[in-house]
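Rather than argue in generalities, we reproduce a single protein record, letters for residues, whole numbers for local backbone shapes, just as it appears below:
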Amino acid sequence: MSTASTKLPEGRYGRSSDERADRKLKIAGAVLGALLLALIGYFGWYYVGQNKISAEVITFEQGQDSVKVHLEVRKDAGASGYCTVRSQAENGAEVGRADFHFDGDATRIDKVVTLRTTSPGTTAELLGCHAD
């Protein structure tokens, strides 16, 4: 006795449901991959392209009621913004915080700023810079 084959002749009745599902999965994967690449590109552009001001603390000098901070600021020509600096006491309590504004056409600014403190500060920490 021979058994009848349940397999349809190839190409006679169109694509099988498995082939259609595979094609839909490939399309969905390609769309999701493209969206992921676009999202990564946007965040990369936003982080690199929008960061117009950056700075670093070169040195600081402690005082009784202030801390003198030497900042080196790098920015785009014509950009303006501010940098936030704070100082902490020896026990870790914050004793001073201030924003220092930078503008003008210079792309590199070396400036000594004075941060007033409520008690002697032992640190000078740059918290960040932001464009206006």
Remarks:
- The helical segments are 17-49.
- Residues 10 and 95 are 81 Å apart (CA to CA).
- The longest helix spans residues 17-49.
- The mean pLDDT is 86.
